[in-house]
Amino acid sequence: MFLPIIFVLSFLSSSSNAADFCVGDLYAPQGPAGYSCKKPEAVTVNDFVYSGLGATGNTSNLIKASVAPAFSAQFPGVNGLGISMARLDLAVGGVIPMHTHPGASEVIVVVQGTILAGFISSANKVYYKPLKEGEIMVFPRGLLHFQINAGKSQALAFVSFSSPSPGLQILDFALFGDDLPTDIIQETTFLDAAQIKKLKGVLGGTG
Amino acid sequence: MFLPIIFVLSFLSSSSNAADFCVGDLYAPQGPAGYSCKKPEAVTVNDFVYSGLGATGNTSNLIKASVAPAFSAQFPGVNGLGISMARLDLAVGGVIPMHTHPGASEVIVVVQGTILAGFISSANKVYYKPLKEGEIMVFPRGLLHFQINAGKSQALAFVSFSSPSPGLQILDFALFGDDLPTDIIQETTFLDAAQIKKLKGVLGGTG
Amino acid sequence: MFLPIIFVLSFLSSSSNAADFCVGDLYAPQGPAGYSCKKPEAVTVNDFVYSGLGATGNTSNLIKASVAPAFSAQFPGVNGLGISMARLDLAVGGVIPMHTHPGASEVIVVVQGTILAGFISSANKVYYKPLKEGEIMVFPRGLLHFQINAGKSQALAFVSFSSPSPGLQILDFALFGDDLPTDIIQETTFLDAAQIKKLKGVLGGTG
Amino acid sequence: MFLPIIFVLSFLSSSSNAADFCVGDLYAPQGPAGYSCKKPEAVTVNDFVYSGLGATGNTSNLIKASVAPAFSAQFPGVNGLGISMARLDLAVGGVIPMHTHPGASEVIVVVQGTILAGFISSANKVYYKPLKEGEIMVFPRGLLHFQINAGKSQALAFVSFSSPSPGLQILDFALFGDDLPTDIIQETTFLDAAQIKKLKGVLGGTG
Amino acid sequence: MFLPIIFVLSFLSSSSNAADFCVGDLYAPQGPAGYSCKKPEAVTVNDFVYSGLGATGNTSNLIKASVAPAFSAQFPGVNGLGISMARLDLAVGGVIPMHTHPGASEVIVVVQGTILAGFISSANKVYYKPLKEGEIMVFPRGLLHFQINAGKSQALAFVSFSSPSPGLQILDFALFGDDLPTDIIQETTFLDAAQIKKLKGVLGGTG
Amino acid sequence: MFLPIIFVLSFLSSSSNAADFCVGDLYAPQGPAGYSCKKPEAVTVNDFVYSGLGATGNTSNLIKASVAPAFSAQFPGVNGLGISMARLDLAVGGVIPMHTHPGASEVIVVVQGTILAGFISSANKVYYKPLKEGEIMVFPRGLLHFQINAGKSQALAFVSFSSPSPGLQILDFALFGDDLPTDIIQETTFLDAAQIKKLKGVLGGTG
C-alpha cells in the first residue's frame, strides 16, 4: 500500500538529480559554464572529496613556495558549483608573486605562520597587512595581489575562490615567461630593456 | 528589387536563433547550465507545450497527494529559460511533506480548495497561512516548506520555480529513504533511534 | 546547560537572515537588482502572500481581457527571488495583444477554457497552438507573444515569469499610445500613415 | 635550479586555461550558456580578431541600410564573454527598422554622419534624439528601438551588446515575414487586414 | 611635463573604484544583491581582514561543537564578492547537525583531526566519508549535510561558501526551535508527536 | 468606452517601469549591483545619451594617448545594463600601457589608423596582432592587454565592456604609482630595486 508514494516521489527526485551537481567529465565537450557532467549514476563520494591538498608542497624553488590548486580541472566535483580552493606553502622567505585571478574573488585563511598579504585596487591604493594564524583576508576579483611569508618559520594557508576555475595570471610569467617581444614589453610597461631581458633569461621567455 | 533586404536581414536573424531558446536534448552532453540544445530546425511548437500537468494526479497513497513536475527533464522546452512548473493535487487530508528546492524560489497559486502553506526561515521563524483559491504565496529559495490540504474537498495548485531544474529534497526521503546509517541520523538530528527505524521501515531506508 | 548551543547557533542563524529573502520596501532606494529590503523584523507572512489575483478581472473593454500582475511592485515579497506571476482573464473573443517582457521568460498554465497562444522567434518562425485546461506553454525571454481566447466560454490562465519585475511592452501601446511622431513610426515600421493615425486615435497617441 | 618554479607554476597556469576564454566550436554541442569550446591548443590570435565589420555594407535595398553582426555565430571568439558587436551602414534615407534584442542591452557609437536613434520603454515613453559623430546612446535590454539616418550623407555606427548572442527580432519580419495568419495578426495588433496583407506581400509572408 | 598622464589616467582609475569592491555598510539600505557600499575613501585594509575566526570556539554545549561565521554580516569586506567563510570547532564527539545553506555551495578543508562529512542529494543518495587533515570536500548548494568529529581529538576545519551570505538552516532548529505547531510538524514529517515534543523541549520550541 | 483598456493596461505598464532601466543616481547609496536608480519620472533621453566621447583626447603626455571612459560613473544611463564604453586616442607612437579590467571583457573596434593590440592568457600565451580600420578584437575578462599605435598617423578606437563599471588597473600605476614599498615590489615581481625606484620617480610613487 505504501508503494504509490515511493513511486511518485522517487520519480520526481531522480529526474531532478542534475540540479544538484555536475561533476566534470574532463574528456567531454566543455562550454562557457564549465565541463560536461559525468553521468549521475557513475558519481561516488570520491568525486566530491580531494586529497591533493593534503601534503606540504615542494618549496625548493626560486620563490621558496608552492601552490597546489583544487580547481575544476584537478577536482571536477566543484564544476558548476561556484567555488574552488588551493593550498599555499611558503618556506621561510617564500613568496607567492604578484598575480591575479581573472574570474574570481579569493579569501585566504592562514593556518600556520605569518603571511604578509595585500592587493592593489583600480584606484592604485594598496591594502596590505601581516596575517596571523586564523586570520582571513579577501582579495576582490581580478586585482593584483601577493602573499609573503613574514615569519621565521614555514607558513601554510588555504585559499578559496568564488569560481570553480578562477584562472591564475602570474605577472612575471605573463610578461617574461613567454614570447612577447622585448620592445612591446618596454613600450607597454616602461621597464628598461636590460631589466626585461634579465627576467626573460630567468623565466624562460624568448623574443 | 526587394530581395536584398530579405537576404541581409534574414541572414542576421537565422544566425541569432540560438539566443532565443535551447530546447533540451536529453541524450546529448549536459553541462552546469543545463542540457545541450536540440537543433533549431528540429524544434516545433510541441517542444514548448507540455500536457503532462493536465490530469489529476493519483492521490491513493500515504500522503494523499501527488506532485507532477514539468522541469527540464520532463519538459525540455524550459531548458536554459530560468523557469519551470509543477502540479500539486491534494486529496482531503493530503500533504506535500516538508521539503526544499536546493536551487530555486517557488510561487504557488491555489486553483481549487484551501491549502495551508508555509516555510521556515534561516532565522527559525515560521511563516504559514491558509491560502484560498486565487491566492499566491512565495517560498524563498532553498528553505524548508510544506503544503497541506486545509479544506474539506480535493485541492489543486500549480507551482512555478525560478529555475528549469529546481531540484527537490523531501526531508523524510532524504533522512529515512536511503542508506544513511541510523547512528549518523541520530547524531545529526537528535531523533531517537526507534523513531528513525520506524520511519526507515515505512520509507524503505536501510542502514 | 543547553543554553550554549542556543546562543551560538541562533546567533549564526539570525545574522544570516538577509540571505533568505528581501521583501521590497517600495519607498526606499531602488537599485539594478530590485528594491531595498524591508527590515526583517517587520516582515510577516502577509508579505509572502498576495490576494490580488483572486478575483476575475474586468473584461468589459476593447480587448475583452484583463491582466493582473503580481510583480515586485504589487507583491514586494518576490523582490530579489527571481520569480513573479500574473493572472489573465479572457472573455469570449478576448485577446492579450502582441507583447514582450524585456527581461523574463514566461510559462502559462490554462486553468479554464481554451487559449490559442504563440510566440515569434528571432528567426521569424511562429510557434502557436491552442492550449486546453491544464496545458502549459513557455515563451522564451524577450520575444513577441500573444494569447487569444479560442473557446466559447470565459478563459482563465496564470502566467509565471523568471524575474520579479519582468516588464511588459505591449506592441500597440508602444507604437501608438505615446507621442512617437507618425513619420518616425512610418519609416521604422513601413505601416501606412493612415493606419498609424487610426490607431493613435484609438489608443490615445499624439504626434 | 630554476626549473622547479617553472614546473610548479606552469602546471597551475596551463590547467586553468579554460577560465580565460571559450572560443566557440560551431560544430560541437551547444548549451544554454553558448557553444562548446574549441580546444585551447588550437586557438590562435585569429580567433579573437574579426574582420567582417571592416567593409561598408550593401545599402542598395529597401531600407537603404545594412547590418553586419559579429555575434558568437560569426565571431566565435566572443562566446562566453558577455559581449558582441555589429556594424550599421545607413545610406541617405536609410533606416534600421523597429526591432528588439531579446537578450541584451546595446550601446551605439556614431562614427560618421548623424543618426536619429530612439527606444520605447515599458511605460510607453519614447526616448529619441539625433546623435552626432562620437555620441553614444544606450538601449536597455529587450525594448523596441530604431535608428534612422538623419543627415544628408552616408552614416556609419558600431553597436555593442551585453551578450555574445543578443538575438534580433525585427518587428516587420516577425509580423509580416512569416506564416502567422492574417486574422491572428489582426486580432493581436489591431492592424487592418489590408495593411497586413500589403506588408506580407512586401516581406514575403504567407497565411 | 609628466603631469598630463597622471591627470588623465588617475581620473580614470579613481572613477572606477566601485567596480573593485563594495565593503558593506551594515547601517544603510540593503538590497537583493547585499549591503550598500561603505564610501571608498573610508575603506582601509582592516575592512578586508577578519580576525574573528582566529580563536577556538566554545564547545561546551550539547553538540560539543561551535560555528563561527565570517559572512557579510560579520565580515562586511566580502559583501558583493561572491564568497565567505566560517570556522568549525568540534570537540571529541562533536557534531555540526544536519543543515543546509539555502543560497550557496560549500567546501570544507580539515585542518586538524578527522571529520566524517556527508551530504544527501535530491535523488536521496548519501555521500559521506571520513576526511583527514588536508582533505577537502564540496557540498553542493542547498542540500542537507553534516560534519561529525570522527577522531579521538579536537577537530578544526574551515569552510568556504560561494556567497557572501550563504544562509544557514539547521534542521532541528527549523523544526523544533520555533513555534511551528506540533500537528503541522507531525503531518509534514511523519514524526511521532512524542518525539516532536521531546525535541521542542530541548530546543526551546513552542506550539 | 475605450477607457477601460487604457486604464487596465497602462496601470500594468507604468508599474513595471523599473524593469527597463535604472539610471544611476550618483549621490544615493550604491550597492554591489551598482548605483541606486534615479526616479523614473525624472529620466529624460539625455540620461541615455553621452557626448563625452565626441572629442579627440589630449595626447600631449608621456604615453601620447588618452582614454575617455563612459562607465556608469560618467554615463549613469548604463547603470545595471551590463555594458559600457570608452574612447582611445593614440597619437603617433602612442601606447595604452599594459592593464586589466578586473570585472569585464572588452571588444575594441579600430575607427582610424592601425593599432597593435594584444593580451596574455593565464597559460602565458601571447595573442597579438595589428588591427586595421574596421577590425575588432576581443580581450577576455581580467587578462593583461595593451594597445599600441602601429601606424604613422593618429589612431582612434572605441572599446566596449561587458559591465557598466569594468574597472581599470594599469600595471605601472598599480606597481609604481602608489606607496607599495620597494622591497615588497622587489620580492613579488623580481624587478631590480633601481628599476622600481626609477619608475616610482616617474609615476609619483612613494615608499
From TrEMBL, chains A, B, C, D, E, F:
Superkingdom of the organism of origin: Eukaryota
Localization in the cell: Secreted, Extracellular space, Apoplast
Protein keywords: Apoplast, Disulfide bond, Glycoprotein, Manganese, Metal-binding, Secreted, Signal
Pfam families assigned: Cupin_1 (PF00190)
Ranges for domain Cupin type-1: 51-197
Keyword Disulfide bond: yes
Signal peptide: 1-18
SUPFAM superfamilies xrefs: RmlC-like cupins (SSF51182)
Record bears the keyword Signal: yes
Recorded family membership: Belongs to the germin family.
Protein name: Germin-like protein
